[in-house]
Amino acid sequence: MMSSPAANITSVLKETRKFPPPGAFSAQAHVKSLAEYEKLWQKAHDDPEGFWALQAESLTWFSKWQKVLEWKEPFAKWFVGGKLNASFNCLDRHLVGPRKNKAALIWEGEPGDSRVLRYQDLHREVCKFANVLKGQGIKASDRVTIYMPMIPELAIAMLACARIGATHSIVFGGFSADAVADRNNDAKARLIITADGGWRRGKVVPLKNNVDGALEKSPTVEKCIVFNRCNQQVHMKQGRDMWWHELMMDASADCPAEPLDSEHPLYILYTSGSTGKPKGVLHTTAGYLLGTSYTHRLVFDLKEEDTYWCTADIGWVTGHSYIIYGPLANGATTLMYEGAPNHPREDRFWEIVEKYRVNTFYTAPTAIRAFHKWGDEWPKKHDLSSLRLLGTVGEPINPEAWMWYHEVIGGKRCPIVDTWWQTETGMIMITPLPGAIPTKPGSATRPLPGIEAEIVDKAGNPLAANQGGLLVIRRPWPAMLRTIYGDDERYRKEYWSHVPHAYFTADGARKDEDGYFWIMGRVDDVLNVAGHRLSTMEVESALVHHKRVAEAAVVGKPDEIKGEGISCFVTLKTGETPTEELKKELQAHVVKEIGALARPDEIRFTESLPKTRSGKIMRRLLRDIASGRQTTGDTTTLEDYSVLARLREEEE
Ligand code: WT7
To answer: Where exactly are the structural domains of the chain?
Structure first.
């Protein structure tokens, strides 16, 4: 269970560098100055419903809504009475003008194959596949599991579901058969869409085999559609399993988009809870589409001719919101890459940037630290001059990684948008607008117009500048989760009961004297050292600032005297050797950077850290190791199981 968080967290990160948006960038941006941002924010603050109603004109409606918001805390309904279709907004409406022959999706497969689908092509394929789903008896509100590699058919499957009103539940291709079965059962899915396999580091991930295992334990799933990606020998069960290409052969390309209610359930996305049971975060149609398209346009300062690349997997919310729904609703060109960043070599991403002349590049801090560790020679082999804007998401970015991203990838000319949000928020919430808000390395800066973010104590009282506390959102926003699928009570309890009348993010943060937010990580990860509540992320940031360190994870371990001691897991840059001297040097380094209260009690060198498949360090597992406990709880989100075993060996 999520422990009841204490408020006050001592913040020790000192970062004073500030980077104003380049003048030329501001001049062409959607929002051009700090003053303009502040005016917009104020306008939305004074009349939030009027503000969102105005934004909602950017969507295409079959019938207009009667009421902007119906709020019965904690349940929201946005654009009540309106009718629209997400797939229509992402496709059909772009076919009437010059976008019909514009690239909607540029796809690069790991083996080097490539496809481009124009808006017309994507529309045709989606219509055909929607008819395939109908042919299998799938109707509005049925749940469909999608367990696929990063190939265009994944996008086609999503949009086909949206077109007929089936609610999709995408399960990341790295999950096991059991995880697929759990999610099938929780959602009561009727059909699953998969592929024989997908490419990852030159090997085939056996997706269909996993599905076979999952379907032994998924009584609600009647049918399985299989796309042939890798020419694998797979078992096809008669009467249940069908080939995608065979079904598509006779499918009609005529499939009008179903007019759906604003609050029609668009998708469920499972995120790991603190208990074993995954939470099905439910997003609905109008508010989600509005939130993702609005933020995609403003935050990435979208231009008609942009080639935009978000490197996330569509199995995570980042891929849902910022590879598919936001960009396609905006008629943008979105790039999708199937494989690993280091296949066949460590410059694959930079090769792709150069090949397609990518303008906007959006990735995770964990990836940036890996690129930094691999060395500057890889990006330096390529022409990255097409890039004009960079983004990050998923965890706080340590200033060291930020500076490297800024200098080596962005050539010091590209603004960086550090975007704070969650699976539950559906859309970006706190971020610089790239032409308007000066950035400070490590800060997600300020809330978007329409978003009321605050730092409070447990009673909900706002804290003074630079005091660490709980990050909450005061008002409902269009793309917010509507509930946890099938569990309204858990939704209320986890998000709306910690702080009175506010959405509880479970993140600790502080707001500085300029109103900039500095996210300090999950409040569950806060250390309590001799009465000081310290953010693990800030100690990590200090460690990574040392020139020999590539990555660090910091956790507490029980300490009789101090309450908690500070235990650090450190990976070194390629070519560095772990020594006892270096341990002492790192301890002294943290004391110099932060102060004696943060002196690490122990430093352990390790080859790699246990991470979730979305790149988050699983500190819970490290806490178990640091305190010599058995690992308990859910480990199904762990990216590489062998890391745990290795960490335990390294301990000996
Ligand atoms: C948690 C949400 C949002 C899509 C990917 C992760 C952390 C996310 C930032 C950021 C600091 C961040 C927070 C948040 N987080 N972005 N820019 N700066 N922390 O989605 O798996 O739902 O995780 O990721 O702790 O609560 P998620």
So the answer is: 530-651
